[in-house]
Amino acid sequence: MERQFIEIIDILERFAFRYITIVGAHAEKISTIYYDHAKLIRQTPQEYKIPTLRNELKAVQEKYAPDETFESLLIQKLSYQDNSSKKIIIRHFLTTLEDHVEWYSNGANGKPKPNEISIFDLSKVTIEHIYPQNISSASVIEDLELVKNDIGNLSFWPGRNNNSAGNKSFAEKKSLYEQSNVTLNRELAKFLDWDKQNFQQRRDKLLKMAKKIFTV
Questions:
Q1: Which of 7, 12, 84, 172 suits a disulfide with 168, CB 3.0-4.6 Å?
Q2: Is 127 helix (H, G, I), strand (E, B) or coil?
Q3: Which sequence spans correspond to the domains of the chain?
């Protein structure tokens, strides 16, 4: 039963992020599903079937939070702003992707499977601007200046602030990315430089990952 409980929580967490946090759909549409399944779990826990919950949530997702809507609103909701609520959403998004990098890289087959070894304390995670948020006027790249707060230009540092990276150029930060214990950062070190094309490539990958991970 413990494994089932963990699986249910995982399904509901990923569903809620997509359906409520990003799409902004009303929780009342799924309240009946929650109550009915809570009742089933209490009454006949040994007979409870998780696929039934998944199928009912999937129907709601396909109707109210399909991939096209989810992706479009992700881009809007994950645009960096210097306020705490927006930062929490971005931290949750990036760390959840990091938790599923191995599963995604291996083909994203079956149900999303997170890495259960690493745990990120979101209160200590800091958001990293790959193209710096505040760069010297002599180093400004106009194409990237326009998208510096887009999710494609964001990563994170776990458990410490990113003062060591700060507003350094991509070339200066590559060694830090390469040494990071965050896979999303190590992947950045594979780029020769950081330009609009590589930004777009990374952005597309994060969005594709999100549609595979934040689903039931």
A1: 172
A2: strand
A3: 2-65, 74-213
